[in-house]
Amino acid sequence: MIDGAGNPWFVGDVAIQGDRIVAVGSLGDAQARLKIDARGLAVAPGFIDIHTHARHGIFEVPTAENCLRQGVTTVMEGPDGGSPIPLAPYLARLEKSSISVNFGLLAGQGSIREQVIGLENRRATPEEIRKMKDLAAQAMLDGAFGLSTGLFYVPGNFTPTEEVIEIARVVGALGGVHISHMRNEADGVVDSVRETIRIGEEGGLPTQITHHKIIGRANWGQSLATLRLVEEARARGVDVTIDQYPYTASMTGTAALFPQWAQEGGRKALIERLSAPDQRAKIKAVIVRNIKEDRGGGDPKNVVLASCPFDQSLAGKNLAELTLARGVPATFENAAETAIEIQSKGGCQAVYHAIGEEDVERILRYPFTMIASDGGIPVFGKEAPHPRYYGTFARVLGRYVRERKTLTLEDAVRRMSSLPATRLKLWDRGLLRPGMLADLVVFDPATIADKAEFAKPHQYAVGVRHTFVNGKPALLDGAVTAQRPGRVLYGPARRP
């Protein structure tokens, strides 16, 4: 038994009645309708994925099989500053659905700003700030767990720090958390960590650096500085934490290669700018730089398309291949033109290989780093998603616990269960204790592993035998059941 608090494992039993754990310990010959022999296996609290993009996939694949096979029982959506606004209609739709995992939402600051200001690159007026604060407050009352920011993305990138703090104060007063995709994860990563800490400190709410990473070879090693900033902030009383996926590649839209100023007003405005030779030259220069020094990792081959709504046959092809297919050499300049063509047609999701393994492990070792996939719920075999969709939690337990000894088994489970539960104020989940909701995972520590690869991402993790959600088996003996025991979860300020 691994209790989720980081304590040493012990041999014992766990009893479930209804949706609750009723006993943990040596239960002898106690009788039950369903008995599971878990000798030689680990029993742990169900894993909580605090950063996902499961909002759309949950309706296509309500079993969330990729989650269950990693032991994930709860997913949190609305990250990176993007969410439904208002939240209530989406949550009502979710309540009417039968899903296998628990599901919660953050309120997206970018979505709130877009609703009030649109995609304009300007400061908000006092009246507009009041409207945004009202929308944030209503989202909290509807059930949001807090505020997400995507200050790298449009329109979040257009937001001054002071404006974010104004919104954060409203969310903090209602018991919410702030989780941020920072403004810059490459050469500006240190300043972005400072900004994230400032939002939490002045906004009066817990703050979290989400999917923390260091992008671009020239910046590798900067995690020494970012973690020092986090530790210094915690020492003076700022409640700041981190989440991370254990991979050396990220995934986001191809718009990430473009300057944010060029995206003001949306795709139509971008295309108009690209039609003006002087502006096109400026945009192209930024794309070239980003391929060389930022998300491109110094080679167009490092940008691999994951999904393209306008042409799904492009999934799995890299920017160098697509440039050569245009009949020109795969130079940085020509690759930039390929990126422009892709974005002009609507853009794609892409995987970017530009993160150093040393930073991954250093961030993972930090005691207040929790695990999060930044993944969605895929249709098996469709498109070419990041392998984190299928493998994140199993990869930590297989590669970084069993093989590399970066973490102990007990500590890894803590980072997947009680640490995110505490961050979200899910006081009745994340621990193996009587009275807690019975979200449980049973896995084999000797065999659990991720199988998904960048070239072949549609491969389920192995080693998880059973996954219980709210006391019911959603995965039993390695097979998805007909049970759909997941629930919609609501944040601390919800007013039914």
Report on the architecture of this protein:
The protein has 496 residues and is α/β, with parallel strands linked by helices. It folds into two domains: 45-250 and 354-425, Alpha-Beta Barrel (TIM Barrel); 252-353, no CATH class. 34% of the residues lie in helices and 17% in strands. The chain contains 16 helices and 19 strands. The protein has a six-stranded parallel sheet. Strands 3-16-17-18-19 form a five-stranded antiparallel sheet, with no helix packed on it. Strand 18 (472-476) and strand 19 form a beta hairpin. The two termini are 37 Å apart.
What would a concise description of this structure say?
With 496 residues, the chain is α/β, with parallel strands linked by helices. The chain contains 16 helices and 19 strands. Strand 10 (207-209), helix 8 and strand 11 form a beta-alpha-beta unit.
Ordered list of secondary-structure elements with their pairings:
Layout: E1 13-17, E2 20-25, E3 42-45, E4 47-49, H1 57-60, H2 65-68, E5 72-77, H3 88-95, E6 102-105, E7 107-108, H4 109-117, H5 126-142, E8 146-150, H6 161-173, E9 177-181, H7 189-203, E10 207-209, H8 223-235, E11 240-244, E12 249-253, H9 267-274, H10 277-293, E13 303-307, H11 319-325, H12 332-344, E14 349-353, H13 357-365, E15 369-371, H14 388-403, H15 409-416, H16 418-423, E16 440-443, E17 464-469, E18 472-476, E19 479-480
Parallel strand pairs: 4-5, 5-6, 7-8, 8-9, 9-10, 10-11, 11-15
Antiparallel strand pairs: 1-2, 3-16, 12-14, 13-14, 16-17, 17-18, 18-19
Features of the shown structure:
alpha/beta; TIM Barrel; six-stranded parallel beta sheet; five-stranded antiparallel beta sheet; 19 strands; 17% strand
